[in-house]
Predict the structure.
Amino acid sequence: MTIPGGSRIFDSGAAGYERTIAITLRPVARRVVDGAALQPGDVVLDAGTGTGNAAALAVGDGRSVLGIDGAPGMIEIARRTVPGARFEVMDFARLDVADETFDAVIACHSLLFAEDRVAALREWLRVTRPGGRLSLSVPGPQDLTPSIVYREVYERHGISTAGRYPEVDDLGPDAESAGWVGARVAADPTISIRLADEGHFRAWRDLGARGEATRDWTPEQHEALTREMLAATPRDVDGAYVMPFGAIFLTARKADLDR
Ligand SMILES: C[S@@+](CC[C@H](N)C(=O)[O-])C[C@H]1O[C@@H](n2cnc3c(N)ncnc32)[C@H](O)[C@@H]1O
């Protein structure tokens, strides 16, 4: 399988991801899993599982959990670190899974990488059984994401931040146009990304540096940007770098044909 566009930076950057963002996203994954109201014995899909954060929390009570991701490097780590779940390399927009397989689909901070959000949500609906549930998160609202901390730095370096994250008001309508019902959206502006020290910050930057906008830059250009970003990032009392990020949570369900 060709690695989907949204997975490219995560494949070679998987080890750095595991040490940095995966840790800081755990409380968000917890809320995503809680939002799915999982039942004993449920069959669960974690779409864009990464290193298996949400899948790990969904395991238990006899549930069967499949985590899929487009980045083989992420799946390799998930297989090694999350016992009890199954992991496959797969594009979440074209799932190699039969219709109506899952009781619940969970997706922590992965939908934002979909080329076509509604098409991905429609694919997730296809593999959900009638009455099944969806629970996901994305970063936001837009003005809380790193765009705000780094706006001036990015502008100085000619990096556009326009349209990078889904808008709060778009998520519910996107889910409903894909066919989900009862969509509920809640934004939590208190969520932040915490990077323990400069090494962790640089590992996070290394992921960003693989993105389209700056992939062809020289090492000197990257270093200049990283230094300015380090200087602009708020620090905690223990020295950690803390970026406001926010999180938007969406829950919805697939209509039950019996009702
Ligand atoms: C920010 S990470 C989140 C990972 C994980 N859910 C977590 O909570 O740590 C986004 C993940 O979505 C995956 N992804 C992006 N586009 C994808 C696609 N089309 N199909 C499958 N996975 C995709 C990436 O490879 C990456 O692992």
Remarks:
- Residues 4, 6-7, 10, 22, 25, 29, 48-51, 53-54, 69-71, 74, 91-93, 108-110, 113 surround S-adenosylmethionine (CB under 6 Å).
- The two ends are 39 Å apart (CA to CA).
- The chain has eleven helices and nine strands.
